[in-house]
Amino acid sequence: MAVKKIWTINHACGDTTQVDLSDRPADRRAGYARWLAERDCTDCWRATQGEDTESKAEWLAKKRAAEQAEAEEWSTRYRMPPLEGTDRAIAWGTRCRHQLMAAAYTALVLEGTTSEAEWTAIEDTARPLTRAGWWLDQRDADPTDLPELLAAATGGDRPTENPHF
Region annotation Disordered: residue ranges (predicted)? Predict the structure, then answer.
């Protein structure tokens, strides 16, 4: 007998919905249905969000703009070159680079045993990594792993003098 695909969900808000879970693996449908039952239905959830949705989007846009300005100012102050990639990847990568480098400085120098001279060498290793995607890939990395991550970066993450070869 096949695992059912259409589930009846009795939501926490009191509403009942029919949900097609065929896009989920059969062994995960029951757990997901249970999770859905612990939450309000989509309509009730949207109603509770109300007008806050726009203000949340506005707040997030302002937060991202402030983070971007801070990251760009930091990049200029510490002579970090512009990143390469799509416009969206460059903006996001610039923020990720700033956040990771700042967190690594705190963890390694301020709270750790790395000297300022050793940190300067880490910065010098980070400068040539201009592929935005590399910084995006590291956004969830532990800051103390930065020296090892920088050492593991490939030539594709660094520009060459003659990019045609």
Answer: 145-165
